[in-house]
Amino acid sequence: MQSTDSSVWKTVCYTRVLQSHRDILNSYEWLDEILINIGQKMLKSQFPAAEGLQDCIIVGDMTAVPPMSEFVQVILIGGNHWIAVSTVGCEPNHVLVYDSFHSPFVHVK
Fold it and tell me: Does residue 40 carry a pLDDT above 80?
């Protein structure tokens, strides 16, 4: 069960991670947008030329910067349902959708 502890556990990629987030990670509960964004920031720091990996809340508001080349982005569909979309290795005008609730990936044109 998720803790409601709001004390800071550590700071990762300039983001405060709360004790309640540590509890989520230790118990294999659903990740929230803060943990998803931290993961994307960690990937962006390892792969600075990668397109996408923008804040999942900005993407939901449709104010994200459109990528100019191949990209990867995690998006909240609703509730606790997250997908990853990517154009890496795709034909022009195609995108891969990675959805853990359904098949491993789907080509979308």
Answer: yes
Q: How far apart are CA 3 and CA 104, in angstroms?
A: 31
Compute the C-alpha angle 45/49/51, nearest 5°.
95
What's the pTM? Answer: 0.73
Q: Are 49 and 68 in contact (CB under 8 A)?
A: no
Interatomic CA distance for residues 76 and 82, integer angstroms: 5
* Residue 83 vs residues 9, 70, 100: alpha-carbon distances, Å: 27, 17, 7
pLDDT in tens, 80-106: 788 899 999 888 888 889 887 776 555
How far is 25 from 58, CA to CA, in rounded Å?
A: 24
